[in-house]
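Quick one, probably user error.
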């Protein structure tokens, strides 16, 4: 029987992984977009599964080789697609330790250190994000599950007023819950309402003002009409296209007068609370009943990191607590199992703890300020190029530009096609990576800056690459393409 840890050239598989990881994250970065095709990856990875297995080092060597062209360098400084953060050095190292330690962070009894790290980091996060210190919290795998956790607590709370114990009685015993929000709501909140049996048909989309913020009059009227119907309001702290913030200081008191629960989706936007320059966007956000935010976006913690905060710990625990005689409940410490949807779970608190310590308060503020500055620069500089236009002035770190087909007879549909083509061409060129969206009925390129490493040099290189791609594509447009 071969020793599974013997290797290729005597290296431990972890050493191979570590060496590769250091090389992978080193600057300067090579091209951002991966080059492998679907077929390439299927054939590289779809090897025969043997009966006897192979040595561990070979597995890792071959995994690295098979994946290397199928990775987009989304943790690098020139990745501006979707809303994607990088990996701070300490957070990446702590994440690696998390795997090596392999703790089950369900209960204090299994991993005392993991439980206390969450306790400490949870308190730090509340302080930084201007969330009441009495709020309970959960470290979830993403903002989607943070919404699920928070809205499960909301569901418990709003139905308790009707003397319904929803966890015990089930939805069949409950009146339908109504959710009020605007069209700026993120799809993950909608998914959470579906998973919780609230149903997306019970979401009522209210009118917004010209700045995209939910209109207070619309909320007042809707809640008055809802009367005694149990209801939840979902507000946005940073929407995905423009980074729009609802007016919390005006809206939350209205909701409170009508006894509703207010949930804030601040997946990335809540981090603005850490910056003295942007904290004003969150005026009144501390009045909400629950908040959801990601660590794996703007805090630059590796993936599998988000947080739910709930101002009503009893509702939170009622929705999430689980027990069994074999689970050792702690009498003094916080058992994460009582706050999270999962039972067994990765000890994801270590990476957040490390990131917060590495950056400190000022480091987080500076990260926020830098990303916002770069988003503004990229949007205005790309928007000023021939055949481009900026569609917004970023509120925070999210910009939008559009590319214009140079043909004098080009239609809106031609500009849409041209915009899609330019996004694809920029990614193929390799200096940077962007993704598209439909904004006010037209195709646009999103500019989302979340990475701790992005610097002035990156911005210059990216603008120059976009300029070249755009000029080349514009020269090739002979006749507008009508579909
Ligand atoms: C505003 C907003 N809310 C929620 C989410 C969902 O977050 P996650 O992908 O971590 O579940 C995202 C993801 O981009 C987002 O931008």
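Nope, works fine. Designed sequence:
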């Amino acid at each position: 029987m071969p020793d599974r840890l013997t290797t290729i050239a005597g290296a431990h598989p972890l050493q191979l992984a570590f060496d590769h990881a250091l090389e992978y994250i080193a600057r300067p970065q090579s091209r951002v977009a991966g080059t492998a095709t679907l077929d390439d990856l299927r054939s590289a990875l779809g090897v025969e599964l043997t009966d006897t297995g192979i040595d561990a080092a070979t597995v890792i060597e071959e995994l690295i080789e098979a994946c290397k062209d199928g990775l987009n360098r989304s943790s690098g400084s020139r990745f501006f697609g979707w809303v994607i953060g990088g990996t701070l050095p300490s957070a990446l190292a702590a994440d690696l330790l998390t795997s090596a330690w392999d703790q089950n962070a369900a209960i204090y009894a299994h991993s005392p250190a993991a439980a206390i790290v969450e306790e400490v980091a949870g308190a730090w996060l509340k302080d930084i994000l201007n969330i009441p210190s009495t709020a309970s919290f959960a470290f979830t795998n993403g903002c989607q599950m943070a919404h699920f956790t928070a809205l499960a607590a909301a569901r418990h709370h709003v139905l308790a007023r009707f003397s319904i114990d929803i966890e015990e009685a089930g939805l069949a015993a409950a009146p339908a819950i109504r959710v009020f929000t605007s069209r700026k709501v993120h799809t993950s909140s909608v998914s959470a309402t579906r998973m919780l049996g609230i149903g997306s048909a019970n979401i009522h989309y209210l009118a917004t003002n010209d700045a995209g913020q939910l209109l207070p009059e619309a909320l007042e009227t809707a809640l008055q009409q809802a009367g005694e119907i149990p209801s939840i309001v979902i507000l946005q702290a940073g929407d995905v296209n423009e980074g729009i913030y609802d007016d919390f200081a005006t809206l939350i008191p209205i909701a409170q007068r009508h006894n509703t629960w207010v949930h804030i989706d601040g997946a990335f936007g809540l981090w603005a609370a850490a910056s003295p320059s942007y904290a004003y966007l969150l005026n009144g956000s501390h009045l909400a009943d629950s908040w959801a935010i990601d660590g794996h976006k703007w805090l630059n913690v590796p993936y599998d990191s988000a947080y739910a905060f709930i101002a009503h710990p009893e509702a939170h625990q009622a929705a999430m607590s689980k027990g069994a005689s074999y689970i050792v409940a702690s009498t003094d410490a916080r058992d994460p199992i009582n706050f999270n949807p999962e039972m067994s779970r990765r000890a994801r608190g270590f990476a957040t703890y490390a990131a917060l310590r590495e950056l400190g308060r000022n480091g987080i503020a500076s990260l926020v300020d830098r990303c916002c500055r770069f988003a503004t620069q990229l949007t205005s500089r790309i928007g000023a190029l021939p055949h481009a236009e900026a569609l917004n002035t970023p509120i925070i770190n999210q910009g939008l530009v559009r590319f214009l087909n140079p043909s004098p007879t080009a239609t809106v549909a031609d500009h849409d096609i041209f915009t899609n083509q330019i996004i694809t061409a920029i990614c193929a060129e390799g200096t940077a990576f962007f993704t598209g969206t439909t904004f006010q009925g037209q195709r646009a390129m999103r500019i989302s800056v979340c990475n701790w490493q992005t610097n002035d040099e990156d911005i210059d290189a990216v603008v120059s690459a976009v300029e070249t791609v755009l000029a080349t594509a514009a020269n090739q447009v002979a006749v507008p393409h009508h579909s």
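Residues 406 and 474 are 6 Å apart (CA to CA).
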